[in-house]
Amino acid sequence: MLRHILDLPEIASRNFTATDSDFLDPYEQRLVRDLLPHFPEVEAQFVPAGERERKVVLFCPYPAPAEDAVSVLKASVSGPIPAHRDILGSLLGLGIERAKIGDIVPNDASYVVVKREIANFLLVHWREIGNQRIQVEEVPLETLPIEEKKWRASSAVVQSPRLDAVVRAITKLSRDEVKSRIAKGLVKVDFQPIRKTHWEIHGGELLSVRGFGRAKIGEEFRQTKKGKVRFEYGTLQES
Q1: Are 77 and 87 in contact (CB under 8 A)?
Q2: Which of 12, 50, 185, 198 could be joined to 19 by an S-S link, Cβ 3.0–4.6 Å?
Q3: Which residues form the signal peptide (predicted)?
Q4: Residue 183 is part of which domain span?
């Protein structure tokens, strides 16, 4: 992924044109930001700006509008607003790669940020989410709502703040299942895949486990009278 992105600023400079990546998660964005000082000949901006999770990096030797890289589609339904997973599933069902899809925001309608290159295809072919018919239109980037995440508070006690122990406490998976998921890179800490079961959790991290969603770890761990560790966490509720 990074190897491909490193080619983009050179292409932008050589051809005096804008180039852009696929959508990056916050961990991938951090990796790219660390490399930007090596490309002073082009401007780089992360789109959409502001409090968004998934972004593309747009390289250009001149100021370029964000709309050159992304589009916002609004899918309206007459019934209940579909859940995040149903919206994503309907897009993947059309053969769209996940990397071409940015943030999905269920609100008064279903808002989706996508790469500009696939917007017209979706305007024509995206016609339903689950069993609900939808009407799709392109809307200005600035009308994209901020996603309001809801977290369900819980707490757990573990022997130590190791990644495998914390994941097991949250997901209720067996020790072997947790070990397997970590080894396969299916567990992320602050969006970074971690393959070490003994990775230490310090507090404040965001954990994601494929198939189980996300959990936000509390800021501190407290030792119990029996020498174990208690921590609080919140699990992300489906929109």
Answers
A1: no
A2: 12
A3: none
A4: 151-236
Q: Do 208 and 172 fall into the same domain?
A: yes
Query: What does pTM read for this prediction?
Result: 0.88
Q: Helix count (H) and strand count (E) of the chain? A: 6, 15
| Closest C-alpha among 116, 113, 114, 111 to residue 134 | 111
Helix residue ranges per DSSP H, the chain = 2-15, 26-35, 84-92, 116-125, 163-171, 175-183
- 155 and 218 in a single domain? The answer is yes
Give the chain's domain count: 3
Give me the DSSP letters along 170-210. HH---HHHHHHHHHTT-EEETTEE---TTPBP-SS-EEEET
Same domain, 159 and 231: yes
For residues 2 and 130, what is the distance between their CA atoms, to the nearest angstrom? 35
